[in-house]
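pinging the channel bc i need a second pair of eyes. not urgent but kinda urgent?? the chain im working w is below, pasted from the shared doc
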Amino acid sequence: MVHARSGAPGELGALENLCNSARLLRTEDALITPASTAVWLREHGLELGEPNREEHELLLAFRETVRDHLARADPAASAAALNRFAESTVAGVRWSDSGEPEVPPKKPGGVEGYVASLLGILFTAGLLGELERLKVCRNPDCRYVFYDRSPGRNSVWCSMDLCGARHKMRTYRSRHARP
């Protein structure tokens, strides 16, 4: 499946990449096993080694929580889940010696440190209003995460050629169905 959209800018790209490590329409998941997860992490510039079972499950759960949070389907549930991730991986908000705000991990490195860094990106993007442009395709079978560059910020499909066209065709057929 080809997505014509360009990737999210800056650090938001890391969130987009993690969410899109599972391509639901193709039934592909780059994080299906700890070994494949290690390969995916390495391909994305993260030398974290092969995660153990708990780390692997943490990363999978975090990916789906972020996707749910971006879909905004149940904000209270995703907020509660993100808070649990933050409690277990983030040391708290601090300022560096140069005066820059930071969200440091409890354990630097490893999968927990990676999740903490992504939580920092998610938190900062939310504060700056940038997170509203990172969206989940409205097709429940797809759920591809994309960056909405439209001026009105009203894109809802990962691709009009794929999911948008399918939706339009279903709608057309349902309106013109014979009784």
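so The radius of gyration is 18 Å. and The longest strand covers residues 134-136. — does that match what u expected or am i reading it wrong
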